[in-house]
Every structure is written in structure tokens, then in C-alpha cells.
Amino acid sequence: MKNKVKNALLFFRRPRSFILAAVLLVVALFFVFGSKKQTAASLVAIRRGSITQEVVVTGDITSSQNVDLSFLESGTVNRVAVATGDKVTTGQILLTEDSSILQAQLQQAEAAVAAAEANLAIVKNGATPEDISVSEAQVASAQSSLNDAEANAVSVVKDAYTKADDAVRNQTDPIFANPRSANPQLVFTIPDQQLSINLEGERVRRENDFAAWSAMMGTLNSASGLGSAIDQIKAYLNDIQKFLSDAASALNVASPSASIMVWKGTVAAGRTEVGTAITDVAATASALNSAEATLQVAQKQLALKRAPATPDRVAANEAAVAQAEANVSVIEAQIGQTVLRSPVKGIVTNVVPKKGELVTPGKIVVSIIGSNSLQIEAYVAEADVAKLVVGDKVDVTFDALPGENFTGRLLTIDPAQTIVNGVANYKIETDFDQIDPRFKSGLTANLAIETKRKDNILVIPQFAIAQNDQGTFATKMENGKEIQVPITLGIQDQNGNAEVTSGLQEGDRVVNIGLKP
């Protein structure tokens, strides 16, 4: 025992040993006194207050109205009213196509509407005596024109008979023996015996045609069936033309002689005469038909003006007006399609065609990004997405606008996950309560989404909470002693505070022990 005491004294007599002992003494005093001081200074009083639970994420400004525009119909661009980078308003003209043809069609359609409305008024109100007089004069004029056309037709038909008679009986008969008998014979021979037989048979039929034609001419006048007579005469002339063509073919294969050469000339002259007659008869027939149609129209118009209005006539004319108006609407719509307008307020990001270029339907010619439709896209981790509800308030800050705060609302939450860097996230979109002109597409935005808010609740700092396998606890000071009490927490905020729903009361003091996993 004496040796131990002696050794201890020797230890403290050594300079190093003395220093070490002094250090140990200071440390011991610190833990005894300093620790108690630290604990006393770290007491936190449980108080009542408000807590806002938030989900904090980062996103980017985007536009929900990125529009690409094109024309519905092909056309030539005659005006380019904007350039890339221009700001545009809703309804502002961007490009136009040439619409001159459509404008002309519109004028015609509007004139048709006016005419239809006038006819409807006549039907409803009845024609005035002046209108009836005008229509009567039109009927008389049309009748006179028809009489002239009929008289001219009779003259043309008679002239056609004369030309045909001369072509056959004077110009062609010399190539036949007994040409007007029942058995005419060619006066020359040809290698094609069948052509010779056919030609002789045709001469007999043409003589019979002349007999019938001559009888018709004796009774032909404007009061008779002139139209049907003209149709029959056309058939006669076509048959004669074929006969003369076959005669020319026969002469072409006959052995050359002076007579053959003369006959070729006379047959050619006859073909020319008949050809002229065919043209004249066709022209007079067309004129006759036109005159008859004009008279019929004039007579119908006069009859309508004289006839009393009936429900059916009124309805028919009203339908005609509606149809004409619909045609105007269609053309106006087509003209409207030649003008390309901005559907949104925004900024032009691309203009493709130049003035004078031809554009095709569906080809993108202008692109616009909407400025009143800016919103923020962000991704929320699956641990937080269940906290969000569409309509939640959003506080927004921008790195590009330091010190300024903006607000908005949660618009959408995607129901399906999006994998970002191998982690499941959910896309959200938020809008702004007010658009700032400094906002630009692509700006980084910091979002604090308010998911819950509670007022007048017990609040505890998170650094005064302990958590372990047995639960959640706080160290409460009671009568100078530290007592660990179990507590139940509610919502938490981003400022290090949590709601206490049970285990503590207002005014309780708890120890700042820090968060223990």
C-alpha cells in the first residue's frame, strides 16, 4: 500500500504527469458543469402556432399553346404580315392567300341572291302591271325571233335540197348509165366489184330520198313540224355525203382517163356543196332550238307573273333564296380560309413561306408560342405525390428573378409515372395567378406546393424530436429532471417545425437533442 501511494506521488511530481492531470480535471469539470449549462440553454417551449406542409420541387416554364398553323387550301401567298420574333394578338392576321377568283365568285353568288329575293318578292306580292307588260314584250320579242328562225330554217332547208340535187343529179350522174332508173350502172369498171355494186345500190336509194324530200318541201312551212323535218333532212344529207365519198373512192381506183379526171372534179365539187349544206342546216337547227327555248322561258316567266301566289310557289322561291344565300356563305368561308389568323396571343417562332410562294394544304407555314398560357412543368417523387391535390396553392421563385415571389395553382397531376434517371416520378403542371412579362419559356422555377395548413396547433421544432424503434419521443424537463415522453406528430413544414397532436401540452419545455435516427 505504501508503495502505491509513493508511486502516485512520484507520478504527480513529474512535469508531464502534472499537465496531463490538469487536462483531465478540466475535461471532467466541463462535463459536470458545462454539460448542465448546455442542456439548460437548449430547452424549447412548446407553443401554439401555424404549420404549412409543402412539397418542394424544381421545374421549367413551358407554354400550353404551342401552335403550328397551315392553310386548308392550296394557293399563292400574297401577304406575309409577321416575322419570326414578332408579338401577336389573338385574331391578328399572319398570312393571306390570293382570293381574287373567290371574290369574283362571291359577287356572282350575291347577284344570284338578289335575283332570287326579287323573284320571291314578285311571287309574294304579285307582279305589277309594268312587270307584266315587260314580260309580254319579252314574249312577243321571243316569238318574233322564233318566227324569223323558222323562216330562215325553211329557206336553208330548201337551199340544202338545191345543193344536194345539184351534187347528185348534175355532178355525179355522168358516171352512171340510167342514173335515175331502178338499175343504174357505172360507166367505168373498177377492181373492187363489191364497191361497184354498193355504189349502184346507193344511187337508187338516193333517188328515192329525193322523191320523199321533194314531197316534204311542198308542205314545209314554219307552222309544220319543222324540227322533225330538219332531223330527217340531216339524215338525207349524211347519206348523200357517204354516196359521194364512195363515188370518189371508185374514181380513185378506176383506170386513168380524161373522163375520169373530169368526174373526179365534179364529184369533189358535189361533196363541197353537200358539206356546206350540212353545216348550214346544223346552224339553223341550233338557232331554231335556241329561239324556241327563249320563247318558252319568256312564256313561263309571264305565266308566273300572271299566276296568283300559292304556298308551293312561295316555298319554292324561299328555298331558292336560301340556296343562293348558302352558296354565298360557302364562298365567304372559302375566302376566310385564305386568311391565316393567330388563335392565341403569343410570339411567332417561325414563318416559312415568302410572298408569291405556292403553299399546299396541311403544310406548316407559321408557328406560335402562346404568352398567356405559360405554365410550369415539374416532376414529383412518388413519396410526395399522394400529398398533392389539384388546386393546391403554389409559391414560385426564379433564379433569374432573385428576391421576387410569385403564386399559382396546381393544374394537373399525371396518373401514370414517368421514369427519370431510373426513379419513378409524376409529372405535374401549375399555372400562374398573374403572368409577368419577364417570364420566358425555359426559365427554371422553384416550386413550394402547399398541401396542408393548420392554425392554432402545438408546434415543436424537429431538432427536439427523437425517433427509434419504439416510436417518437421528446425529452421534457419536469421538476428539474429530464423525462422522455412518447409523442404523436402531425404535419411538418420546410422550416423544421412539426405538429404535436398528443404527448405534450402548451408551455412544456423540451430538450434540444437533435434528430436521432
What brief labels describe this structure?
Elongation Factor Tu (Ef-tu), domain 3; 24 strands; 29% strand; 4-stranded antiparallel sheet; OB fold (Dihydrolipoamide Acetyltransferase, E2P); alpha+beta
Q: What count of domains describes the coordinates?
A: 5
Distance between the termini: 49 Å
Number of beta-strand segments: 24
Helix content: 40-55%
Shape: elongated
**What's the total helix number?**
9
**Any idea what the radius of gyration is?**
55 Å
**Which residues sit in consecutive blocks of at least 5 with pLDDT less than 50?**
1-39
Spatial arrangement of strands, main beta sheet: 2-13-17-15-14-18
Major sheet details: 6 strands, antiparallel, barrel
Task: Explain this structure.
The chain is α+β, with helices and mostly antiparallel strands and 517 residues long. It folds into five domains: 2-41; 48-62 and 373-511, Beta Barrel (Elongation Factor Tu (Ef-tu), domain 3), CATH 2.40.30.170; 65-98 and 338-370, OB fold (Dihydrolipoamide Acetyltransferase, E2P), CATH 2.40.50.100; 103-126 and 312-335; 129-307, no CATH class. Helix content is 47%, strand content 29%. The strands form six sheets. A six-stranded antiparallel barrel has the order 2-13-17-15-14-18. A four-stranded antiparallel β-sheet has the order 3-12-10-5, with no helix packed on it. A four-stranded antiparallel β-sheet has the order 9-6-4-11, with no helix packed on it. Helix 3 (100-125) runs antiparallel to helix 8 (311-336). The longest helix is centred in the middle third of the chain and has 49 residues, at 258-306. The radius of gyration is 55 Å and the shape is elongated. 22% of the residues are buried.
